[in-house]
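input
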Amino acid sequence: TATLAKLETDQSAPVRDPEALDRELDLALLKVDAPQPLPAVKLGDSDSLLVGEHVLAVGNPFGLGHTVTLGIVSAKARTIGAGPYDDFIQTDASINPGNSGGPLFNLRGEVVGINTAIKAGADGIGFAIPSTELRNVLPQLRAKGFVERGRLGLRFQPVDGTLAKALGLDRPHGALVAEIEKGSPAEAAGLREGDVIVEVEGERVRRAEMLPRLVAHHGPGARIHVTVVRQGKRLTLTATLAKLETDQSAPVRDPEALDREPEELLGMTLRNTPDGVTVMGVSQHRGLRVGDVIVEVDGKAIRTVKELREAIPAKGKKAILLRVRRGERELFVGIER
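output
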């Protein structure tokens, strides 16, 4: 079935299958076969956005094309658990299913974001990918059809107030290196466990979750400068990044189903997470543990709490068979209703 794009002249033009995909950011690059040149919007600078600034969201919510909603920038650099490169603009401009992929404009008519997710069950909480992230990946999408990212090869953790004092930092910031992979670029560069990474290529690591994104802005083979605090002293190391392996065949997440609020169901406290339906609490079922990820209900694969609820038989069965993922293994657990 051909996909059509509606043009301003009420003409339609076929849209080719995505020519390029970045599954990590949930972005696709499309090509429209239009009969004449099309006007283009200007890509703005999302870094210059201010909290409280007015923005406009444009999209196709519930099939209602060319819908425009007005709101403000509620927050920047939001982390919502969608992936390792979370850096969302939060807005209260009304965003609904069908808005994903639509532009977020500033009042100068510049695209400062791409609408991508909503907070399920909430009112006025939507998220957009910043235009600066699009600028970072667009050259690779155009040239290669995919995005290659670099990796250091380490595990890290946030720095709280107590750790900051113990590590000789003037305030909580940076990413504390907890573990370094053998043979990794981090090891070759001289990074050590206990180092606090505070800058990557001159850009400050204000929060630990910024580190994967700052590193991923550089491709495999790139030489980057990493500034660390070690025993109270700053030093700068040079690392040559390895290739970050990703599964390009993995299904694109459904950002509009993103729901971070826990739900109670059959004696379990459940939450949608990037891993799937995660058990946050258990009140009556032996065999289930906090942290288990439910992947099947009576042989039916599920990805969200809503799908789990719909997969449970309305009546008849006294026990339900769950398949759960626990660490690196999977097992079956039976629960009684």
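quick obs: The two ends are 44 Å apart (CA to CA).
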